[in-house]
Amino acid sequence: MQDNPTFNHQADLVNSAIRFINSWFKQSKAITQELNDFFMLPGKKVVSKEVIISKLKGIFGQADEYVGGRYDIIDVNFELLSDGKGMGFVEGVAGFRSVVNKESKIVSGPFKLYFALNNNNWKIVNIEFPGFVY
Question: pLDDT tens across 85-130, in order?
């Protein structure tokens, strides 16, 4: 079988995005496994993973549950840099029903997950996702 690093990196990005999205729908603590130790935000602002986890807990704590999560991945792109590093993203659309006190509200829209490659692992370094705010 031929080595195809492009396919492997693309598959790694997609699989990491899928794990993140599925963990989001389940409000699972496993979501933290996909996150980098720090996030790079617009304006060259750097935020620690702990701050992002705190934001996620706050968002998840607002709803009793998420129901009927669906997503479509539309694009995956990456660039390999020197020294085994890289940058990439996965984007698409996602939607789910947020249930609070037996009342449900549809939350949907585009998403874009930004990744950095370090030590052969793609980790999320920035999140644009329906219902998530910094």
Answer: 999 999 999 999 999 998 999 999 999 999 999 888 999 999 999 9
Burial class of residue 87 (count of CB atoms within 10 Å of its CB; 0-12, 13-18, 19+): middle
What the block records as the tokens of 38 is: 């720090």
Question: CA angle, 88 as apex, 117 and 21 as ends, to 5°?
Answer: 95
d(CA 112, CA 50): 21
| Structural domains of the chain sorted by starting position, each given as residue range(s) with its CATH number in brackets | 5-128 (3.10.450.50)
DSSP for 86-115 reads EEEEEEEEEEEEEEETTEEEEEEEEEEEEE
Question: Residue 49: which of 57, 39, 61 has the closest Cα?
Answer: 39
What end-to-end distance do the CA atoms of the chain give, in Å?
44
User: pTM for this one?
Assistant: 0.90
d(CA 21, CA 3): 29
